[in-house]
Design brief:
The chain is α+β, with helices and mostly antiparallel strands and 291 residues long. The protein contains 10 helices and 11 strands. It folds into 2 domains: 2-151, Ribosomal Protein S5, domain 2 (2-Layer Sandwich); 156-283, Alpha-Beta Plaits. Strand 5 (140-144) and strand 6 (147-151) form a beta hairpin. It binds L-homoserine. L-homoserine binds at residues 11-12, 18, 124, 128, 130-131, 168, 171-172, 245-246.
């Protein structure tokens, strides 16, 4: 039996749509795997009633198939599905690490990124690696078709998750097909600023680079209270705040000592809009690892 802790992740980070991602210190899924003649999956924990146990429809099952590593896989969800916190990616990454270990497959973490991305394709229709890359490598990552680059980073974060469900499919359907040239230039500048901030462990630069006038702006209509919670995070001292992945969670970058205030402010703003919410005071964290 192998047990792995696989972290939540925050994709996009504002300016890095479909490319940037960061592993979070928490929450996380716990994945246990033991060898079997054929793959079976059982899911418990947050939102488990919405997650298919059929291996063909579960990211962990698709990973087992890709690695030719049949196993009984138990997934204890700490990352709620449809949260914008890489729930399906956590299960895919955790299964990839567990089965690679269990069957001694010898794949590197970077090789496991493409395996886990196939799991993502099974549930979302596209093999996005912007969540599985940080879930496997930890820290901050940029995932493109050319490969994945990443750096470890120490940035305090607050993630506030409202009790709203947003499917990635719906969140992608509201995106504009085209952007203005001025928006392109602005976004490139912000993305470069964010990368510099991650490399220097500088929450001011990371926060500045999180600004985004294209993707999160289009999606905000799907999350009641999003604009108010974002404003509240900034007023409480966050250096930047944006939608986490395809939402509904918000991720805010903070300086040391500010997380408690930012967490309270974002929860209160959602509640004032009639939406219950919970906040995680966390930071950029490690990738999936044996537990
Ligand atoms: N980059 C993706 C999106 C993350 O924002 O749609 C969700 O899987």
């Amino acid at each position: 039996m192998v047990t792995v802790r696989a972290p939540a992740t925050s994709a996009n980070l504002g300016s890095g749509f479909d490319v940037f991602g960061a592993a979070l210190g928490g929450p996380a899924d716990i994945i246990r795997a033991r060898p079997a003649d054929r793959t079976t999956i059982s899911v418990t924990g947050l939102g488990s009633e919405y997650i298919p146990e059929d291996p063909a429809e579960n990211t962990a099952g698709v990973v087992a198939e890709a690695l030719e590593a049949p196993a009984h896989i138990e997934i204890d969800k700490g990352v709620r599905p449809a949260s914008g916190l890489g729930s399906s990616a956590a299960s895919a990454a955790g299964a990839a690490v567990a089965l690679n270990e269990l069957y001694d497959r010898g794949r590197s973490r970077k090789e496991l990124v493409s395996v886990a991305a196939e799991g993502e394709r099974a549930v979302s229709g596209a093999a996005h690696a912007d969540n599985v890359a940080p879930a496997l490598l930890g820290g901050f990552t940029a995932a493109t078709e050319a490969g994945v680059v990443g750096v470890p980073a120490e940035i305090p974060l607050v993630v506030c998750l409202p009790e709203v469900v947003v499917s990635t499919r719906d969140a992608r359907s509201v995106l504009p097909e085209r952007v203005e040239r001025s928006q392109l230039v602005e976004t490139v500048g912000r993305a470069a600023t964010l990368v510099a901030g991650m490399c220097r462990d500088d929450p001011n630069l990371v926060g500045r680079g999180m600004a985004d006038s294209v993707v999160a702006a289009a999606r905000s209509e799907l999350v009641p209270g999003y604009d108010q919670a974002r404003e509240a995070a900034l007023a409480a001292g966050a250096t930047g705040a944006t939608m986490s992945g395809s939402g509904p969670a918000i991720v805010a970058a903070c300086r040391e000592g500010q997380r408690r205030r930012v967490a309270a402010a974002t929860v209160e703003a959602f509640e004032e809009n009639g939406v219950a919410a919970q906040a995680y005071q966390t930071s950029v964290g490690a990738g999936a690892g044996l537990y």
